[in-house]
Amino acid sequence: MTAVDDPRGLLTALLDAAVAAALPDRVVPPNLPTPPAGRTIVVGAGKASAAMAKALEDRWQGPLGGLVVTRTGHGVPCRRIEIVEASHPVPDARGEDAARRILGLVGEAGPDDLVLCLISGGGSALLALPADGLTLADKQAVNRALLASGADITAMNTVRRHLSAIKGGRLAAAAWPARMVSLLISDVPGDDPSVIASGPTVADATTFADARAIIARYGITPPPAVAAHLAAAADETPKPGDERLGNASSVIIASPLASLEAAARVARDAGVTPLILGDAIEGEAREVGRTMAGIALSSRAHGQPVAAPAVLLSGGETTVTVRGTGRGGRNVEFLTGLALGLGGAAGIHALAADTDGIDGSEDNAGAIVTPDSLARARELGLDVPALMDSNDCYSLFAKLGDLVMTGPTLTNVNDFRAILVLP
């Protein structure tokens, strides 16, 4: 394959390599801890947690049992570990029940037992156990408001930790004095364990005051019970140095950067120079797209920051401030902003997708932009800026026939973006 002959094929191969580098069957086995003298209790949450459980179960020597919760459609059959599917990104009663059972399981662990916790992106919504005095409906309302506000994942998870009975280190505290080992597939900028799935097994440095400030910053009016809970600040999350976390450790077994590096190797093999712009890029999706367009155009015209043939690779998690009622997703909105910024420039192709196979809450992973995307849209009578303003970018790429459909990949290292600049 050459980039000039098949740019779409190369972009797809780059995404495939990024996903493959983070598949649980590849990253779980080398990171398994030594078996304990007592029992091994497996718990976990996230879009990859069921596949992680299967990879663990296939290779574990000795007795094993437990429960993990994953997103609906992301389940993998296991023999000894129970798999529960629940709603994401807005939590539901199945996730609440699973979280309560998980908290109960780890509470039964003794000093000779091992609690093996499998955590990946999406775990925050799936571990939906409200703090005392709150209901699932309260958490659902706040979650919807945060998702529509444009808040980044760090801000959202700060609030979630302070509305939860299990997040922000509370799960690890419940397991003490048992040894707890957490295997983490990172989907967050900077790979901060306290942000991945809202950090159920690690200390939390944020406070109720931080959560209140985020609610105010994004103009969110929470349900009265939530406002009262945040104001009372009666039960802070475990902080660094808490003795209940002394037997807990965490290992990041897959990350956005590792997946970008895997894609870069495929690009080099195809004779294309890769440039990794970063694995923690955040911001409003459409604006990040326009900025990336400027970088690609500079490479095309001036050979800076990299000369063609080249591919600009990046990861992280952009955000979308929802103003319209269309079908969206941050990757298709990023690509729409990119296409408008490129203005149909020759020789520039791009792919953006969520590595879990789901862009937001739609059925696509992402989409592809080609040099003639805007021209084809005009031929179809589509008003591209208007579609973006109504957050209807999914419809744009569906009508162009350029959606990327992978189905659930059973991993999650956040967004993958590749902009191919050809001579």
Descriptive terms for the model:
423 residues, Rossmann fold, six-stranded mixed beta sheet, 16 helices, 12 strands, 38% helix, 18% strand, globular
Protein described:
The protein is an alpha/beta fold and 423 residues long. It folds into 2 domains: 7-19 and 257-421, glycerate kinase, domain 1 (3-Layer(aba) Sandwich); 23-254, 3-Layer(aba) Sandwich (Rossmann fold). It is built from 16 helices and 12 strands. It has helices spanning 7-20, 24-27, 49-57, 93-107, 123-126, 136-149, 153-161, 170-175, 208-217, 224-232, 256-269, 285-302, 330-342, 373-379, 384-389, 393-400; strands spanning 40-45, 65-71, 81-86, 114-120, 179-185, 248-254, 273-281, 310-316, 348-354, 366-369, 403-404, 415-421. The strands form 2 sheets. The protein has a 6-stranded parallel beta sheet, sandwiched between helices. The protein has a 6-stranded mixed beta sheet with strand order 7-8-12-9-10-11, sandwiched between helices. Helix 1 runs antiparallel to helix 11 (256-269), helix 7 (153-161) packs across helix 9 (208-217) and helix 12 (285-302) packs parallel to helix 13 (330-342). The longest helix has 18 residues, at 285-302. The model has no long low-confidence stretch (mean pLDDT 96).
